[in-house]
Design a protein that fits this description.
Elements (H helix, E strand, L loop, with lengths): L8 E4 L5 H12 L3 E6 L8 H7 L3 H11 L12 E3 L1 H13 L3 H26 L3 E5 L4 H10 L2 E6 L4 H14 L12 H14 L2 E4 L2 H9 L7 E3 L20 E6 L8 H11 L4 E6 L17 E3 L7 H6 L3 E4 L8 H8 L4 E4 L12 E4 L4 H13 L1 H15 L4 H19 L6
Parallel strand pairs: 1-2, 1-4, 2-3, 4-5, 5-6, 6-7, 8-9, 8-11, 9-10, 11-12, 12-13
Helix pairs in contact: 1-15, 2-3, 2-4, 3-4, 4-5, 5-6, 10-13, 12-14
């Protein structure tokens, strides 16, 4: 098959976001990828490896674990352009936990410098289209008309103009959790993201929540293309061994009030379930002062080796994700693939349908969270049924299917921009 647009699309993201890697792989497989512009890519050599080697043992091992994940099987090295300095510095600061504010400042610098670098490259190479990511593609989008390049925005999270007021309310409602919510230079970032969305020729949205926030900020619906993320259904599978007998509720993600973590802790505290355990897997954002009243109420797994993550899902009876502002949680999809029911908010951007693969609860509703957990605790047969349905549902959304859907979208967009031949 001949590909008229072969090698004509540049994907660019300054850090490691799984869907950006999958987007690049999709275009590689579809013979559409020109370049994948990214920050740190592979630890085998270059600046990231030298920088990591100079760090103390603890920070070095954390950074090395992160950077070792910066690789995508199937991507040709010839298509990869890496810009590692600011991304490596950001990763080191973020992983050290020294300062959330400093990490956010460096992330903004990283995004801006990366964006300017890609913009210069676009003017030289003039790809047919680019796929950029919110908060890191404004300058590139600005130069695209001069290069004759189509602008595709992949909106990873619900628009910040909608999310920021919610998160600012959370900071006021729960000041002990305020430092877990990153809102550094929020007005600047909101304006930047609004400009990106308005300039984009098309926007990819992974969930109904993301789509709704884009419409809410004035983006016309016809410009938004729904593209749910995928999950590795071969790695994340239901357990085959006998249940331990302990009822286990699981949360996976950054332990932050953006994820609604206090509402989960309060719900669990009220329930006082015998022979039950709450497991929180993920890094604590901020100083963690909000966790102090719940000491002894949960088990914390701050850093789980990648090879063991799936076992946590398999040991759980219910997955709870009461996020306040999200895009589309990959952790929720991993839980579904693992055959466990999910309790989540609409703002989580979940594929879960209320009463079919789990339950959708309102944000900030402790009673609703507690009620649904109790329902799963008291009715294990229903929990198992919902878990089976969750697995069936998510099998329609593998990464292979994501890549196929993205290529179809891109071929349609590229075809529409090609000049029509006269008959």
């Amino acid at each position: 098959m001949e590909h008229k647009t072969e090698g004509q699309v540049t994907v660019f993201h300054p850090g490691r976001v799984l869907n950006a890697y999958q987007a690049a792989l999709a275009l590689e497989e579809g013979h559409l990828l020109r370049h994948f512009e990214t920050g740190s890519y592979s630890l085998q050599n270059g600046f990231p490896a030298r920088f990591a080697a100079k760090l103390p043992t603890g920070p070095r091992s954390k950074l090395q674990r992160e950077l070792n994940r910066r690789m995508q099987k199937g991507l040709s090295d010839a298509h990869i352009r890496s810009h590692p300095f600011w991304d490596t510095l950001f990763s080191a600061i973020a992983r050290s936990g020294v300062s959330e504010v400093l990490a956010n400042q460096v992330m903004l610098i990283r995004n801006e410098r990366f964006d300017r670098t890609v913009a210069s490259h676009v003017l030289k190479c003039r790809p047919a289209a680019v796929i950029g990511y919110d908060s890191s593609c404004l300058r590139t989008f600005e130069v695209c008309p001069a290069a004759g390049t189509l602008r595709i925005l992949d909106q990873v999270i619900g628009h910040l103009a909608v999310g920021a007021p919610l998160l600012q309310e959370e900071q006021g409602l729960h000041p002990e959790w305020a430092d877990s919510i990153g809102l550094h230079r929020v007005d600047y970032t909101v304006n930047r993201c609004l400009a990106e969305a308005k300039q984009a020729d098309a926007i990819l949205a992974a969930s109904d929540y993301v789509r709704a926030t884009m419409i809410q900020v004035g983006i016309r619906a016809s410009k938004i293309l729904q593209l749910p993320y995928g999950v590795d259904v071969e790695r994340f599978v239901p357990r085959t061994t006998a249940h331990s007998g302990v009822f286990r509720a699981l949360f996976v993600g950054q332990i932050s009030q953006r994820k609604g973590i206090k509402y989960l802790l309060e719900a669990w505290k009220r329930l006082k379930l015998p022979n039950a355990e709450l497991v929180l897997m993920g890094r604590v954002a901020g100083e963690g002062r909000g966790l102090a009243p719940y000491h002894g109420l949960y088990r914390h797994a701050p850093s789980v080796p990648y090879a063991e993550v799936h076992t946590y899902y398999q040991s759980a009876d219910v997955f709870v994700f009461p996020s306040i502002h999200e895009g589309s949680s990959l952790a929720v999809m991993e839980a579904m693939a693992s055959g466990i029911p999910v309790i989540a908010t609409h703002n989580s951007g979940t594929l879960v349908r209320d009463g079919q693969e789990g339950f959708i609860v309102p944000i900030r509703d402790i009673d609703a969270i507690a009620q649904r957990i109790l329902q799963m605790y008291n009715n294990r047969d229903l929990a198992r049924q919902l878990g089976r349905q969750a697995r069936q549902r998510v099998e329609e959304f593998t990464w292979k299917q994501y890549r196929s859907r993205l290529v179809n979208h891109m071929e349609t967009l590229l075809s529409a921009r090609e000049p029509k031949t006269q008959s």
